């Protein structure tokens, strides 16, 4: 059994097993973007381009820097295979195993669209932000492929963002450097997300997409990222709609920069780098990537004493105190679809389910069009009740057959067709209704009606059956 630190190297050695085989040069559609021409591939009526750099590789001196512009290239760049997912320690029980080996050079974007698109056509754009607790995840898992959604008349974009200590890290010397360069600091993963959305705004028209009609969608840490983007001062004008899958209550931690700097200094000290070492930053950047990961992933991430990792935090520029921003109305007011799974993290009165309900109510009360849901359906092959965390993703992506393979039943696939149709409708017009689907009412706190993707495979709108219990639990918790 290889050591945890050896796993990324092992995946690199096995990379031919993970990477999709590129199409032969000259066989796919060529699109011109702001850094050069890229050639994709066509399969099953869908054109795709993968592994397009949206920023410079964040390696060497660019480790722990805001994403820098990608270098232009001459000729035609082949774009038929995913780029590397961002550096991390994968784990076998991941709900969406990676399709590529992880590496620091990972800032790549992928695009799917219907193959037959006129140059002047402006299709709705859906941009996917993966979850994984901000320490795992990537755009390459087959469940996240965009072909099935593209077939329904949208452009689907996915991308990678930095994770763990590569994505969220502070240190006094980093603060000095960032202040000197006039750059934001700490939340590099969020900066990557903003850079990817700016890439979409500049380039998606070349793929037939409408830069003025972008829907961002994320699950778990991706859903929390959507919440952060909704309140980020730097995200204005980058999207027109938002979908939050299991993203909690919209509140973000605000420990203060000094506290996060101390945590970064703790990590440096654990690597033998003193806080007052004038070359601390150079030494940190010289650490091998697997030493920065340091054996941490979603499966074994546990509190340490002293702490050596914190994750996203409110820095005041890229990420603010989202809870306060939502409460005060200082957020991007666009239509929002929001929900969680029935057996999500924390149970029916816990963080994900109650959090989604709370945020839906707060947004709706401020006049935002909100469509709330609960995903209660369980694939027939699982054979036990309760929809677990992240189990709704393949249904929204219509990749149920990819996720469950030969065990996917007609009922499973039908639920995927229905849920993906709601998502595509929402992306097109900010309202999931239409196309003969069961009516999904706009959410209002006094009516408390949500769409339940029910266990029997029949979606329907109903008053939240857990509403009173969630409210009672919330009131009791507030009184303690």
UniProtKB/TrEMBL annotation:
Per the UniProt entry, the signal peptide is: 1-25
Matching Pfam families: COesterase (PF00135)
Q: Which InterPro entries match?
A: AB_hydrolase_fold, CarbesteraseB, Carboxylesterase_B_AS, Carboxylesterase_B_CS, Type-B_Carboxylest/Lipase
In the Enzyme Commission scheme, what number(s) does this protein have?
3.1.1.-
Q: What UniProt keywords are attached to this protein's entry?
A: Hydrolase, Signal
Q: Where is the Carboxylesterase type B domain?
A: 28-345, 351-455
Asked if Magnesium is a keyword of the record, the answer is: no
Keyword Hydrolase on entry: yes
Which family, according to UniProt? Answer: Belongs to the type-B carboxylesterase/lipase family.
Q: What is this protein called?
A: Carboxylic ester hydrolase
- Write the lineage as a comma-separated list: Bacteria, Pseudomonadati, Pseudomonadota, Betaproteobacteria, Burkholderiales
């Amino acid at each position: 059994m290889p050591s945890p630190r050896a796993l990324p190297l092992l995946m690199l050695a096995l990379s031919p097993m993970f990477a999709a085989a590129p199409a032969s040069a000259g066989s796919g559609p060529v699109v011109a973007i702001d850094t050069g021409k890229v050639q994709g591939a066509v399969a099953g009526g869908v054109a795709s381009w993968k592994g397009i750099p949206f920023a410079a590789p964040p390696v060497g001196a660019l480790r722990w820097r805001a994403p820098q512009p990608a270098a232009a290239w001459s000729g035609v760049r082949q774009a038929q295979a995913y780029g590397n997912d961002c550096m991390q320690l994968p784990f076998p029980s991941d709900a969406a195993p990676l399709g590529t080996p992880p590496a620091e050079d990972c800032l790549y974007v992928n695009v799917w669209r219907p193959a037959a698109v006129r140059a002047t056509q402006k299709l709705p754009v859906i941009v996917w932000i993966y979850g994984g607790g901000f320490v795992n995840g990537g755009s390459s898992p087959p469940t996240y492929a965009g072909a099935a959604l593209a077939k329904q008349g949208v452009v689907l974009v996915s991308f990678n963002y930095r994770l763990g200590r590569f994505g969220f890290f502070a240190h006094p010397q980093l603060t000095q450097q960032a202040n000197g360069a006039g750059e934001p600091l700490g939340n590099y993963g969020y900066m990557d997300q903003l850079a990817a959305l700016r890439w979409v705004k500049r380039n998606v028209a070349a793929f037939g997409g409408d830069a003025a009609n972008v829907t961002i969608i994320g699950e778990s840490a991706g859903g929390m990222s959507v919440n952060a983007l909704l309140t980020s001062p730097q995200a204005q004008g980058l999207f027109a709609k938002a979908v939050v899958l299991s993203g909690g209550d919209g509140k973000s931690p605000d420990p203060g920069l000094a506290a996060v700097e101390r945590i970064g200094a703790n990590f440096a000290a654990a690597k033998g780098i003193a806080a007052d070492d004038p070359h601390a930053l150079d030494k940190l950047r010289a650490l091998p990537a697997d030493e920065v990961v340091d054996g941490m992933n979603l499966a074994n991430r546990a509190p340490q004493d002293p702490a050596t990792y914190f994750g996203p935090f409110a820095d005041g520029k890229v990420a603010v105190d989202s809870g306060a921003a939502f409460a005060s109305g200082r957020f991007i007011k666009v239509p929002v679809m929001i929900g969680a799974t029935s057996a999500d993290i924390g149970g029916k009165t816990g963080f994900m389910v109650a959090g989604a309900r709370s945020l839906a109510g707060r947004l709706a009360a401020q006049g935002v069009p909100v469509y709330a849901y609960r995903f209660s359906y369980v694939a027939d092959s699982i054979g036990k009740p309760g929809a677990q965390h992240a189990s709704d993703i393949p249904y929204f992506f219509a990749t149920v057959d990819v996720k469950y393979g030969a065990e996917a039943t007609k009922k499973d696939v039908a639920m995927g067709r229905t849920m993906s149709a709601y998502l595509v409708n929402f992306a097109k017009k900010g309202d999931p209704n239409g196309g003969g689907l069961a009516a999904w009412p706009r959410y209002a706190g006094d009516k408390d009606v949500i769409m339940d993707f029910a266990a029997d495979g029949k979606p329907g709108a109903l008053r939240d059956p857990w509403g009173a219990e969630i409210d009672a639990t919330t009131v009791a918790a507030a009184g303690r």
